[in-house]
Amino acid sequence: MIKKWSILVALLFMLSPIEVLGKSLIPMGHSIGVQLEMPYVMVAQDVLLENSEWLKKGEHILKLNGEKVSQLEDIAGKGESFTLTVENGKQQRDINVSAHELVHLKPFLKSETDGIGTLTYIDPETMEYGALGHQIVDSTMKQPPKFNDGAIFEASISQVKKSTPGQPGYKISVVDKSQMPLGSVKTNDVYGIFGNWKQSLHDSLHPPLEIIHANELKKGKAQILTAIDGEEVNLFDIEIDKQTDNTFTFNVVDERLIKKTGGIVQGMSGSPIIQNNQFVGAVTHMFIEEPTKGAGILVIEMLKKSPY
Q1: For the structural domain made of 17-37+112-305, what CATH number should be given?
Q2: Which residues does the UniProt record annotate as the domain Peptidase S55 (predicted)?
Q3: Residue 248's closest CA among 295, 303, 301?
Q4: Where are the domains of the chain?
Q5: Residue tagged active-site, from 134, 189, 204, 306
Q6: What pLDDT is attached to residue 63?
Q7: Is there a catalytic annotation at residue 204?
Q8: What is the value of pTM for the model shown?
């Protein structure tokens, strides 16, 4: 048991082979909550207003009574009525709403994107981290959101909905955003989120491990680090069965994990994979019709997408 610790942007540069040769990272496996603060207020779902006009899902609230709006807290003020300036990507329009209506409208608006995933690694030399293994896509926009700032927080798994063929499961997590963030979010890239780790280093199931290179990966036994109950990270057995360039597929063979989760579940993305005491990569996807089968990305590829 691991003790408690207090789940496309432009490519900035590519690490050279010399820079990654012999590099060691700490494999983590902890569940994290991710928060990205968007530079606008967005309508999260269709809303019918009192004047029979619609605010449509995905539209942006640009102004309130002519004053620029950039976060949800800006949707407030004194008076009997308000004018919202709304943009749908093609044109702008003004909508009049009452003070009562403005209050009841706020639950249908958002200025941030939240997600759950798994912390992949921490670089003990630079105190930078990588997580998730894939990009965060906003559920409303169905695309990666623009964001001004971001943070990751400690998450605790309260329940797991098991995966079954055709029905992906998921982790149900409690994220305490009242605590200090574990780190910042610098980029939201195709291979994960990256940023600065802001807390002290915490215990891991492994010391820093040397990263594996594409030609060193072998078919056969490996292990995944992930949390499926509270904040405890455990090792579970998998078998790597196929590699294509910098990605690979694997099968969950650990009966403990299959019994608890059915295999791979949402929220497990980013879970580190270890083989022969080397850091292989991270879980990225599951096969919906075959949930005991998953896909991963080599950690060396994640490093190439890091902004540092």
Answers
A1: 2.40.10.120
A2: 86-308
A3: 295
A4: 17-37+112-305, 39-110
A5: 134
A6: 92
A7: no
A8: 0.84
